[in-house]
Design brief:
- With about 180 residues, this protein is mostly helical.
- The chain has one domain.
- Helix content is about 75%, strand content about 0%.
- The chain is built from seven helices and no strands.
- The chain has helices at about 1-10, 15-45, 55-85, 90-95, 110-125, 130-150, 155-184.
- The chain starts with a helix and ends with a helix.
- About 35% of the residues are buried.
Amino acid sequence: MNNLIFFFFYNLAHRSEFFDNFVVFIAHTFPYIVILLAGIFLLVHHDVLPSKNPFKIFAQRWKEIVLVFFSGIFAWCISQILKLLIHTSRPVVEFQNVVSLIQKNDFSFPSGHATFYMALAFAIFFSHKKAGYVFIFFALLIGIARIVAGVHFPIDILGGFILGILTAYLVRFFYKKLNKQKTQ
């Protein structure tokens, strides 16, 4: 099933140079734009950027902004450790006829991109539902593009999504628990 879904998406590649470039953009460049958009959203939403004294406002509201990015970074770190422990080959290694659009030579499960961006999306979703849906869509788009680009199997992306969601949830859970203990 994993291979069947992989080839369904991968077979979309290598048909049009424009489409291949678009996939590479979504899989490789767009993620940096998503980080920038998340930062801008959080700074604007918490009235840091529109204020007359943004440093003062940031000093008061930095915890949630940092919590979102911490969730993503922590999830990514866990994914890198799991890659070293699990040792799953990428599609280009498994199949001789697969030519990836992005060169990667490390292990593939779980996808670090899928993990980071889903953790980021859910960390935003827990506080800002509407914006969270947008960032979840971005994470899904990045994950699918990485399958089309031939650098991940669907199970790598799904595993990354699950890891990202769980990590974001646990970071938020323990953060709330620590804050509750401080106020008692």
